[in-house]
């Protein structure tokens, strides 16, 4: 995991607690949801984890990189997501998880100061150092398989450039220290070159690039991105399909977020917020199809704000004002105030993406796994068509994919 902060440490602690029987892995579809296989009777609804050949929680070991944190216990205490009494029985295991020095550049995350960074100056050398780290971790932990999932901060917004057009162009850019290559792209390159499936949990431009698509296909590695769908965007993908199902109109959707964790501090910088804003704004158009229903959704004012407020910590508040209209154009409003816990919602997403990407890799899948869009704010499309954002259609696609593999398992 690049980024051993609030999300990663909460994920690790939850898996350790579940392994000890202290708390079930609530929020994880792979562990708690049931899957109807084919035309089985209603009373035969096996758990997903019993239907397909997933790695078990006992199979997992954890590692990663972080420019600030010295170990997972310190990360969890600093983040303040979990109470001391929940961390106490896990403290020894968490403290033993020490992240490797990170590839880090303040030009991409201006609000953080990296103290534990790799000494390699060139981007090519940084990529080779990450590849070496992956190999050492695999050998040292005696792992059969690895998955990499970005749990780090949101990088400054960027558009693709010529260096991203092909693997050859990207590798030439690494050697030339091209300024358009970000740290997250170096991690993605190192993972794919190492044959490791990769998921992007932030809105960074990392695997949704022609060079990475080419590399994933060449190496036979499945990938998924981007941006964990946790609080407010999850609410949008729940509510917008319902509004559309009733053929009610939408005039405006104003969203604001208050949060005070490291993510909020990073997103307080305009260039980093821009990346998150683009990720969040694409949801409504994809679901509501304004070009198909111009009378209902052709003139939506969609506004997204994020406000850094340190006292709130990881307990984010997402507030939405939704202006809809109905029969004869009469206006109505929906208001949502979601007092959520960002890392608590993200942690089971990390677990599911890790286990499902590993499953996909063992099944011989490679390239963009669009069926994992259920977990992501800005899911990457596998073909020419845009990715689906409707949560319920995404869930159906996820279940259908798993049913296919369950049938193959017999």
Task: Please give a handful of descriptors for the protein shown.
about 400 residues; alpha/beta; Rossmann fold; Dihydrodipicolinate Reductase, domain 2; 2 domains; four-stranded mixed beta sheet; 16 helices; 8 strands
Any overview of this molecule?
The protein has helices at 6-19, 29-32, 48-51, 72-79, 84-87, 91-95, 123-140, 167-175, 183-193, 210-219, 232-245, 262-267, 270-288, 294-297, 342-362, 391-409; strands at residues 148-150, 198-200, 222-225, 249-259, 301-308, 317-325, 331-339, 367-368. The protein is α/β, with parallel strands linked by helices. It folds into two domains: 6-228 and 344-409, 3-Layer(aba) Sandwich (Rossmann fold), CATH 3.40.50.720; 232-339, Dihydrodipicolinate Reductase, domain 2. The strands form two sheets. The chain has a four-stranded parallel beta sheet, sandwiched between helices. A four-stranded mixed beta sheet has the order 5-4-6-7. Strand 6 (317-325) and strand 7 form a beta hairpin.
Average pLDDT, all residues: 92
Shape: globular
Separation, N- and C-terminal Cα atoms: 33 Å
Proportion in helices: 40-55%
